[in-house]
Each structure stands twice: as C-alpha cells, then as structure tokens.
Amino acid sequence: MKFDARKDHDPQKRDAFIEWLVTEAASGLQQSAGIPEALRAVVFLYLHRAYEAGLGADLVCDLLGITQHSVLVRANLSETDQLTVLDAFEVLDPIIAAAYQ
Q1: How does pLDDT run along the chain (101 residues), one tens digit per residue?
Q2: What's this model's pTM, rounded to 2 decimal places?
Q3: At what angle do helices 11-32 and 36-52 cross, to 10 degrees?
Q4: How distant is the alpha carbon of residue 38 from its chain centre?
Q5: Domain that includes residue 52, residue range
Q6: 4 in a domain, yes or no?
Q7: Within a domain: residue 90?
Q8: Domain count, the chain
Q9: Measured between alpha carbons, how far is 13 from 92 in angstroms, rounded to an integer?
C-alpha cells in the first residue's frame, strides 16, 4: 500500500495506511518467530515503509512497540524475539530515518 503523509493529508487514508503497516509488520514478525535474521528483515522493511510514507520518527517508534495496538503487541512474540526486534530497531532506525530526510 502506498501513502505519502507529506502530500496526502486525508486522515482516513493515513489511518488506513497505519493499520496496514502495523498489520503487515505484525504478521511478518509472527511468521519469522524464532529466526533472528528474519525478524531483523521485518523491522528493516517496516522502517523503510514507514519513512517512505513520511511518518515521523516518534510515530514510527510508538507504532512498533509503545501503543496499545502496536506491532509487538499484535505479534505476541517471545521475550527473546521481542528483544531481537527492539535491538534491530535501535540499530536500523537512525540509518533508515537519515536516508529519508
């Protein structure tokens, strides 16, 4: 799904994109459970999609693991897998965010 928050200010389209993004990432993490490299790849894709769509860094972080309906909550991963995801986020986020600025 394509969306660009910098050009499209329709809140319904933005919400639909966010729902799709979170659902896709959670599904990818569930399918990758127990495989650290696959989990990192899902985080990489999540970050690219989010920043390509012009979402802000705070929202990208919140959607991954802070909000009630976050990617991590939906994915329901083991503690080990959650740590792998968070470690990947910490490493990849600054690099990918910088690429889209």
Answers
A1: 999 999 999 999 999 999 999 999 999 999 999 999 999 999 999 999 999 999 999 999 999 998 888 999 999 999 999 999 999 999 999 999 999 98
A2: 0.94
A3: 170
A4: 14
A5: 11-99
A6: no
A7: yes
A8: 1
A9: 27
Q: In this structure, how many other beta carbons lie within 10 angstroms of the beta carbon of residue 54?
A: 14
Q: What are the structure tokens assigned to 1, written together?
A: 């799904």
In a domain, 5, yes or no: no
Q: In the block, which residue shows the tokens 């990192």?
A: 40
- Whole-number Å distance between alpha carbons of 35 and 93: 20
Residues near 63 by beta carbon (within 8 Å), at least 6 away in sequence:
18, 21, 22, 50, 55, 70, 71
- Looking at the chain, which runs of residues are DSSP E strands? none
CA distance linking residue 93 with residue 101, whole number of Å: 12
Residue at 2 is within a domain: no
